[in-house]
Structures are given as structure tokens and as C-alpha cells.
């Protein structure tokens, strides 16, 4: 399978395009010849993560702003809706913000895209968190949805709205559910950046929460490639599609792999205060639908991806920011 895609002259709007997954999506679109517009409020996204290119236009704005959205979707052939408040622990303290952005903001993007009369595809980025902890494995798209967090509920509500508007208006929509993406240019204090930052601060002992939980980690280049294949596969319209590696790893084993890459002797200490409330215990993707419809498969292993990410983290100090006081900083 070749990961190279051709989007020559295609006009694509990417919301949240300066963020972690978004900046990789934008980079691949530009390499494929697309004309890209990014809509981002830069609450966590970073301008330096975006490539400098004559075919890239950056608009600072919020997906909830009806006037800005109506203007920016005009003449766009496709919309990739990634913008969201993404960090789960924050959602426990700011539920209104999460529903406002993740649900209402997505509905605004969808409705303005429908009314634009030019957009012929809307790719909505959901999350594996809507499934809750695995009841059966691997988890396919028919797995029950039992979200554990306000974040996951706000994303699931947006999924439901996307399909309702798809059916009511005959408007082409795809819902992509990425499992845990990782890689360089991270913008949130997820588990991999957290482990790496503790090591890079010189800690000889990692303090972590539930190290026995397991996740399906997918390198961000592969995640972005799966998302963008929807632009070329008409059979994806009207579908929910998982993007995940199909392999799982415990947080303990993940930490050991990162420690090995760092070439440092690290002890792992359980700290109850680091454990996230209502956390999902296990996620493992069934990616057979993505393989069949999108002709996609992961190409970068966890080991290689962690090595690339660690090298980037060594050279780039990241300060995790958000539009409100963070759970993350209160519990360090």
C-alpha cells in the first residue's frame, strides 16, 4: 500500500488544522497538491506546526462563530472537522465548554457546509472514547457506545448529529473514529508526552496512574492518511470507520519501551493522584472496515513511532495550554 495521495487543486477546509492531528492532515494535503484553508482558534494549536506554502490559508476563528464559519466554508469542496476540546480530564470541570465546542460547534460546521452548496464531503473526526471500555475485542464499529466522560459524550452527540443531518439533507458525511494517536507535534498532556516529559526533566522515577490499562496506539501519520483516504473513496460516505493499529499495549509496557529508547534506567511508581477518574480500561481497534473501504493499514510500528516522537521531544519543549485552568496542572 502506498500512502501517497493525490489531491491536486482540491479545495479543503481543515478545522483545528494547527493542532496535533490537524497539522499532520494539513501537511499531507499540501504534499498532495491541495489548496488548504485552516480554521483554528489556537487555544492549543500552534502556527509553527503548519507548513509554509502558497496553497495554505490560515483563518483565526472559532467553529461556533456562525459568521466566520459561513464565510470560510464558501467554495470549499471538502471539510475535515477536527477542531475540538480534546483533553478528557478537563471535561469533568468544564462540561459546558466541551458541549459548546465539540457538539454545537460541529453542528454549526455541518449546517454551514450544507448551506454552502459547494461542499461535497464532510469528514467528521470522532474518537474511540465513545465506545467506553472494551466489552468485546477487537472493537468494531458496531461495538456498543458507553462513553465514560463528558468529552466522549460531547463527541458522540456530534456523531449522532452528523448522521442525522446526513440523512435529512442527503449530505455526504463520513465519521472517523481514531484510536489513540501519537507522534511529534503533540499539543496535549496525553500519556506518551507525559512519560517523555518526566524522563526529559531528569526523573529517575516515573509517577503514573493506572499502568495496567491498555490502549491501541496509532502513529499520527497513519491516522491522518486514513482520514484523507475518505476524500478518494466514495464508499466511505455514510459510514463510521475506526482508525487504529489493531494492537494493544499496557501503559506499563509503554513506559518501559520509552525508557529503553531514552537509554535511562527508570523506575515506575504508581501514584493514585495521577489516576484519571472514570478512565477507560481497555481499547483495541478492529480496523478491518478501514482496510476494506479505505484500503488503509498502519505502516509505522509503535516502537518506530515512539523513537521518532522521543527525538522530536528532545528538541522541542512543549507548554500545554488551554482556554481555562487545567486539571493537569492541579494534579502534578
Give your account of this protein's structure.
The protein is of the alpha/beta class and 332 residues long. It folds into two domains: 11-182 and 220-243, NAD(P)-binding Rossmann-like Domain (Rossmann fold); 191-215 and 247-283 and 301-330, UDP-galactose 4-epimerase, domain 1. The protein has eleven helices and 13 strands. Strands 3-2-1-4-5-6-11 form a seven-stranded parallel beta sheet, sandwiched between helices. It has a two-stranded parallel sheet with strand order 7-10. Helix 1 links the parallel strand 1 (11-15) and strand 2. Helix 6 (191-200) packs across helix 10. It is globular.
Short description:
With 332 residues, the chain is an alpha/beta fold. The chain has helices spanning 20-31, 66-72, 88-91, 95-116, 150-169, 191-200, 220-229, 251-262, 288-294, 302-315, 327-330; strands at residues 11-15, 35-40, 56-60, 78-81, 121-125, 173-178, 180-182, 205-208, 214-215, 217-219, 240-243, 249-250, 267-270.
SSE arrangement:
Blueprint: E1 11-15, H1 20-31, E2 35-40, E3 56-60, H2 66-72, E4 78-81, H3 88-91, H4 95-116, E5 121-125, H5 150-169, E6 173-178, E7 180-182, H6 191-200, E8 205-208, E9 214-215, E10 217-219, H7 220-229, E11 240-243, E12 249-250, H8 251-262, E13 267-270, H9 288-294, H10 302-315, H11 327-330
Parallel strand pairs: 1-2, 1-4, 2-3, 4-5, 5-6, 6-11, 7-10, 8-13
Antiparallel strand pairs: 9-12
Helix pairs in contact: 1-7, 4-5, 6-8, 6-10, 8-10
Amino acid at each position: 500500500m502506498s500512502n501517497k495521495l493525490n489531491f491536486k487543486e482540491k479545495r479543503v477546509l481543515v478545522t483545528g488544522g494547527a493542532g496535533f492531528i490537524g497539522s499532520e492532515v494539513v501537511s499531507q494535503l499540501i504534499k498532495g497538491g491541495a489548496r488548504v484553508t485552516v480554521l483554528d482558534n489556537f487555544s492549543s494549536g500552534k502556527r509553527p506546526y503548519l507548513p509554509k506554502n502558497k496553497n495554505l490559508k490560515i483563518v483565526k476563528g472559532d467553529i461556533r462563530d456562525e459568521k466566520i464559519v459561513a464565510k470560510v466554508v464558501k467554495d470549499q469542496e471538502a471539510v475535515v472537522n477536527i477542531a475540538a476540546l480534546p483533553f478528557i480530564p478537563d471535561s469533568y470541570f468544564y462540561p459546558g465548554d466541551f458541549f459548546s465546542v465539540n457538539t454545537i460547534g460541529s453542528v454549526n460546521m455541518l449546517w454551514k457546509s450544507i448551506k454552502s452548496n459547494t461542499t461535497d464531503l464532510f469528514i467528521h473526526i470522532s474518537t474511540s472514547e465513545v465506545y467506553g471500555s472494551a466489552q468485546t475485542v477487537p472493537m468494531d464499529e458496531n461495538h456498543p457506545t458507553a462513553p465514560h466522560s463528558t468529552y466522549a459524550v460531547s463527541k458522540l452527540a456530534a456523531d449522532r448529529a452528523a448522521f442525522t443531518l446526513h440523512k435529512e439533507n442527503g449530505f455526504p458525511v463520513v465519521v472517523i473514529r481514531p484510536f489513540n494517536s501519537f507522534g511529534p507535534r503533540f499539543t496535549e498532556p496525553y500519556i506518551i508526552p507525559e512519560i517523555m516529559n518526566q524522563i526529559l526533566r531528569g526523573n529517575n522515577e516515573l509517577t503514573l496512574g493506572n499502568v495496567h490499562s491498555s490502549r491501541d496506539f496509532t502513529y499520527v501519520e497513519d491516522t491522518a492518511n486514513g482520514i484523507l483516504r475518505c476524500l478518494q473513496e466514495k464508499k466511505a460516505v455514510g459510514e463510521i470507520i475506526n482508525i487504529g493499529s489493531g494492537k494493544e499495549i499496557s501503559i506499563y509496557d509503554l513506559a518501559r519501551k520509552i525508557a529503553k529508547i531514552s537509554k535511562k534506567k527508570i523506575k515506575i511508581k504508581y501514584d493514585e493522584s495521577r489516576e484519571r477518574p472514570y478512565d477507560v480500561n481497555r481499547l483495541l481497534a478492529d480496523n478491518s472496515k478501514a482496510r476494506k473501504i479505505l484500503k488503509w493499514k498502519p505502516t509505522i510500528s509503535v516502537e518506530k513511532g515512539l523513537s521518532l516522537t522521543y527525538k522530536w521531544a528532545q528538541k522541542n519543549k512543549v507548554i500545554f495550554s488551554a482556554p481555562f485552568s487545567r486539571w493537569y496542572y492541579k494534579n502534578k
